[in-house]
């Protein structure tokens, strides 16, 4: 397997004045009691500008009227920009002025996400897995990834990881990153292919680490490619990253971060999620890294309160962590906002996480942060003589594994909309109990069953083609053929019947027959011109689209 590197691009930003962001980059974890931090920036969404006025001009006009200072953050697809208050002015007063402006649709005090990772035990690096014979990547067999890989190898699938970047020099990632972009507005971080924290590299590897290269691990998405979006975890930054990922063909987007749920999301952030979903991306978010019922967003947007057990609510997935005993991990979120689970730790206390790639340089996770009460993780591991690995436990890891499998499904069967992929993942999950539960949602990921189910859903319309009719006197003989080839790897349901349509004398076409045959004889009117076409319908109910013009036309002779 081979993946080529292609350059990343960030395009379409409005040309507005910029100021440097003052907030420090978020660390990999915060204690459960810590509130979600704010950025000191307002996200302002404008109404459509008046005819003839450019969006950039509208931004400047609003800023001039209200005294707002624009920043580098601009999301033209959402008509959203980031602004700050002038020196000596309060953010609250600026928000009031902006809300009173007739051209402003919404004003939202921006929050900063925290990564879904809990170093609740410094002993992450034990070489023993707790029982004899347990292999390092034990979770792959338990989630039946080998069966999934027999059906779909993931070549060409795309997983976007919005996180702290990913180390592009790591042997498990170097051939997997097809595009990257930097949405970290703090100014102090390196490029997206450098990960100072370590979290993004680990998450990316669990989703798409290169297989069959003789080193490290295989990601759950096997042959999938990576879109790496480096973020400072502010709402605006993540919203930009969501749109970039969707525009670059992401089939699944992993978000291993969230808020404490004390404040609602802004409209612009919700619209960015909707934009990515509408573009075909399966949205996957980590549940809280604390055993609480409020998961914070984006998890609680993808699976709102008390909808976890409702299979009609499939905007995205809120993923909690299970341990090797098939119980919810002690640190993981629970309740009515949980969609499903995947393994995120080995031991019941989360003391031995999943092995994944890690940057070569010392990371922020290893240094710790006394101001955030974050201890050094002691998570780095030497694996087959290579020190570029670590054991990390958390819902972050669970979400990444699910994201890789979602991309496998979406790429195997591109006719499946994201909501159907989400529903199948829930329905096929392995359940310790009979139905949905607040501990593990619909159950623990069963990749083999999920990919098999996705393969069996025929959502591709068949095709048919009518040959030139044979006219003898007033008799018209129609012949046609059909095919239900579908998508390679997906089981086609086969053609059930054909509809035969006829237009006469230029009038709109009307259906004249529904049949399983491939021929039809009828009598025409002398001197009349007819147009004919067929529409195939398969056993799954997929219906061929009508052609732009008739497949064939004939005129019956006057004599």
Give the topology.
Blueprint: E1 38-46, H1 55-66, E2 68-75, E3 80-85, H2 91-100, E4 104-111, E5 114-115, H3 138-142, H4 145-151, E6 158-163, E7 177-183, H5 199-208, E8 225-231, H6 235-247, E9 252-255, E10 257-258, H7 267-278, E11 282-286, H8 299-302, E12 317-322, E13 340-343, E14 354-357, H9 364-367, E15 380-383, E16 386-392, H10 395-412, H11 418-428, H12 447-456, E17 463-466, E18 470-472, E19 475-483, E20 495-504, E21 510-515, E22 519-523, E23 529-538, E24 552-555
Parallel strand pairs: 6-8, 6-9, 7-8, 9-11, 11-12, 12-13
Antiparallel strand pairs: 1-3, 1-4, 2-3, 5-10, 14-16, 15-16, 17-19, 18-19, 19-22, 20-21, 20-23, 23-24
